Amino acid sequence: MKKSEVKTDLRGKITVDDFIFERIVNDCKIAYAKCEMVYQNEQPIDYIYLDANEAFYETMKTSKEETIGKSIKTIKQNELEQIDSLIHKVSTVFSNGKIDFRYFNESFNQTYHIKAFSNQAKVFYVLIEPIESYQEAYQNLNKEHTLIMNSIAEGIIVGSQDHKVVSLNQSALTILEYQSESNLIGKNIFDLLFSHLKGIRKNRFDALLESVPFYNKTTKFITNEGRWIDVTFSVTKRMYGDQPIGYVMSFQDITRQKELEVKLKASEDLKSIVLNHLPGVIYQSLPNKDRTVSFVSKGVYELTGYTKTEMEQNQSFPFTQIIKEEYKTDVWESWNEAFDTNCDFEKEYMIVTKEGKHKWVYEKGKPVFNVQKELVAIEGIIIDLDKRRQKDLEIEHLMYHDQLTGLKNRLYFDHMLKLYEDEKKYPIGVMVADLDGTKFINDSFGRVFGDKVIQQFAKLLMKYEKDGIVVARSGGDEFSLILPNSDSSKTYDLMISIQNEAMSFVYQTDLKDYQLSVSMGFDTKLNDQVEMQTILKSAEDYMHRRKLLARANNNRDSLSSIKATMLANSQETQDHMDRMGNIALKVGEKLGLKQTAMDDLYLLALLHDIGKVGIPSNILNKPSSLSDEEWEIMKKHPSIGYQIAMSSLDLRSIAKGILTHHERFDGTGYPEGLKGKEIPLISRIVSIIDTYDAITQDRPYRSARTHEEAIIEIKKCSGTQFDPDIVEAFISIFT
Predict the structure, then answer these.
(1) Average confidence (pLDDT) over 147-164
(2) How many CB atoms lie within 10 A of CB 148?
(3) Looking at CB atoms within 10 Å, which of 297, 346, 642, 662 has the fewest?
(4) Phi, psi angles (nearest 5°) of residue 39
(5) What is d(CA 318, CA 636) in angstroms, rounded to the nearest whole number?
(6) pLDDT grade for 9, boundaries at 50, 70 and 90
(7) Predicted pLDDT at 553
(8) Does residue 695 have a pLDDT over 80?
(9) Alpha helices, H only, 278-324
């Protein structure tokens, strides 16, 4: 017969295919065995194992080789008395068809649940399961119950119907501050928990028991240490069948929670007092651009003129409504940055109150995110800064302003100079100005009059304080300006404008009227390559050269003494100096020289022959031609002039020009034989002007020649003695 077929027994019932049956049995986790009963004189005396599954071998602690084909008595020779009883019990299966019993195996100290089946003579089947003993099961159950009870954080007391403690868990001992349950079992629960208040509490508790179960009632228990603790407790009934036999009480110590609640309430009360007495506003608003208000403290009325009710009850009230217009964008952009970085917001700005008054405020706040990290609100505080801001402005004004003129002072000038440099507002023009003759004015007319002159010039400068230009009084009679984003041309034009406007001011005295005179200089910082201090020094040097020229013209300083010596000890005249200076300025303008170069050119035109003060007068004034020896002495005057100029801070800038004003373009001049562009520009210019003036003026050894003759002579020397480009510019000033 094929394994997949089914067959019927003699009674026509369908049985399971052997193969399928074998598979089921072998995969079963319950011990299975097929046995055949052995009879003697029709009495069962033994049985033989015909087949068994793996679970059987494992349960009975044996193997297939030790079991199959062997009888039970052969296998259990040392347990024959117990085995006879088992054989007799199993044999009843043939009369009943099925039996179910428990069997204790002494050698294994194990109880088994055995089920036996039979549907034919002598052959029966058994299923065997090991089971725990009732005592062991009870003990295990009790252990598990204790473990569960002691794992619960709540205290649990099991009470009898007459309020005696039946049992309690470890948490109950801990909460009630007892070391062991031995002294508590059987004790009256009300004596334990309520001490001298037990009578009152028992009556209330008995009333509560009528509504059992109940949950989360609050009361106070007394501990073993005599402390009263706050607890919440719940009670359920214990039943035996339909009869109540007591109750189970669970409780939690909430003393700490109660203390925190008291502190929290005190804190909330204090917070409410603080919120309502702060010199400003605590707020919460939506994180939209209008910042719609959802909460404000009562201080909002004093700060803004709007009531708390007006702001909170109007669901569409935009907080931005009170921010002054020019601050709205900046404030909102700063908040957006706080949103993106999850950082605090902090800013000072102006608001407009309900009455239209402008106020300075300080706001500090933070964005609020939910657990999904979504932005849900803005919270913060706004403080009234108006009075403090006014004081700050007054202090700032005193700190950064000159008291005499009202202009900014040197401290502010230095601060803004660094700020513009840090912000790279290149090109940065720096201008310095110094009033000429202030010492003379103070000495002659008094310091009060001198202060008025300074104030008048300051008033003139004030109108240039625009477009970021900083104007400051940096010293007694010194003023400084910073021009951000201003190139040299723009700065120079402004300087000339100030100078021209200053010249139009005349201050009057009892003796005579004086014209205001100011010396100015400037330089421009184009990038980070040059230090700002270098630019400042350059501007100051420029200004000092201008002042030197002013003093020279006014004949009030040491330079006048040098000029006087020159005039007294040489053929030089004041007219010669004036002609040289005027022509030099025209040529310099024609060549487009900067003001600093123009100043040096003018000074050199006046003083190029300063070295002649060191030449003997008999050589200087000789009416005839000089001898070779005398000429060598005369040729030393550029070097002598150079030494004089280098010894004076006022003349040092033209010292090289004095030394080289007799050099020739072709390199044949003296004293160094320089050639072409090696010769300083101002020297090449003065060389032509000096030659022109010498030709057109009388000399001890010859008469003056005409302008035309002088031009012909200069053209003839172009490229040899003179720079051709400068010759062309020189001639053009006369056309």
Answers:
(1) 89
(2) 10
(3) 346
(4) -115, 155
(5) 87
(6) very low
(7) 57
(8) yes
(9) 300-304, 308-313
